[in-house]
Amino acid sequence: MSATYRESPPRGPLSSHVCCVWANVAGPGGHLERVLPDGCADVVWIEGEGIVVAGPATREVLVDIPAGTAALGVRFGPGATGAALGVAARDLRDRTVALEDVWGAPATELAERLAGAPPAGRLALLAAAVARRLDGAQAPDALVARASGLLGAGMPVTAASREVALTDRHLRRRFHDAVGYGPKTLQRVLRLRRFLALAESGPSPDLARAAAEAGYSDQPHLTRECADLAGLPPAALLASRAAA
Questions:
Q1: Closest CA to 144 of 131, 157, 130
Q2: Are 225 and 185 in contact (CB under 8 A)?
Q3: What secondary structure does DSSP assign to 49-92, as a single string?
Q4: Residue 151 · residue 190 · CB < 8 Å
Q5: How far apart are CA 180 and CA 171, in angstroms?
Q6: Do the beta carbons of residue 98 and residue 51 sit within 8 Å?
Q7: CA distance readout (Å), 138 to 16, 38, 64, 88
Q8: Cβ contacts of residue 162 below 8 Å, gap of 6+?
Q9: d(CA 243, CA 110)
Q10: Residue 126: its pLDDT value, please?
């Protein structure tokens, strides 16, 4: 059996903070996943390893999943991490921490329940546990969420600051609390995401066209940012994603 990955939109109470829930099962040869920055943080359970919080990343993270191992996750959208977990997102930047360090004993109990649950019910169990924690949680920063959407659409940081009526300095501080890093970093992350979506939208990627439409000034600009954020030049990154 080959590796399988499925992603679903959040339901009910999760929808206030969560952008998706996901499940992955590695194939018989195992799976090395190149996880790219996306402005999000995940609560992740990996079979045999327990539950962690994968904080907002500023560059690629390589995750080696052994053959046949299941991994499940709940992903908090840009700007929702701090509110969902009750900690400043900047404290989780580029870190993976045990969920027990954030939730305490309930995280250990959840890990034990997941390990003993039937495979088909594990994702619902994890999602329900996160939903209970979100009951009464602080709402995501609405101005940060709005600014994140504008940056994702290609708006410059200064223009996004004006649109949400905050100075660049105030917006940057609120981004560090809610997202984990500043708006300029999120802008770079989302621009790379736009490039990948454009380049992978057809059978034969046109890198120059995708780079221009995504907002890169030229090909060297794309190459530098892709290497910084993903650890590979554009063509190699696209090839690795196609192979995976």
A1: 157
A2: no
A3: TEEEEEPPPSS-EEEEE-TT-EEEEEEEPTTTHHHHHTS-GGGG
A4: yes
A5: 12
A6: yes
A7: 10, 22, 34, 12
A8: none
A9: 34
A10: 97
- The pLDDT, as a whole number, for residue 1 is 52
Tokens coding 16: 């206030």
Residue-level pLDDT at 2: 65
What is the C-alpha to C-alpha distance for residues 125 and 143, in angstroms, rounded to an integer?
32
Q: Is the dihedral of CA 60, 66, 67, 72 positive or negative?
A: negative
C-alpha span between 222 and 215 (Å, rounded):
9
The closest of 127, 152, 170 to 20, measured between CA atoms, is: 127
**Contact (CB, 8 A) for 47 and 71:** yes
DSSP annotation of 119 = G
Residue 220 in tokens: 């060297």
> pLDDT tens, 166-183?
999 999 999 999 999 999
Q: Which amino acid is at 138?
A: Q
How many angstroms separate the first and last alpha carbons of the chain? 14
**pLDDT for the residue 91:** 96
Closest to 129 measured CA to CA, from 142, 111, 146, 141: 111
0.70 exceeded by pTM: yes
Report, as ranges of residue numbers, the positions in the chain whose pLDDT lies below 70.
1-2, 244
CB 25 within 8 A of CB 6: no
DSSP characters for 160-210? HHHHTT--HHHHHHHHHHHTSS-HHHHHHHHHHHHHHHHHTSSSS--HHHH
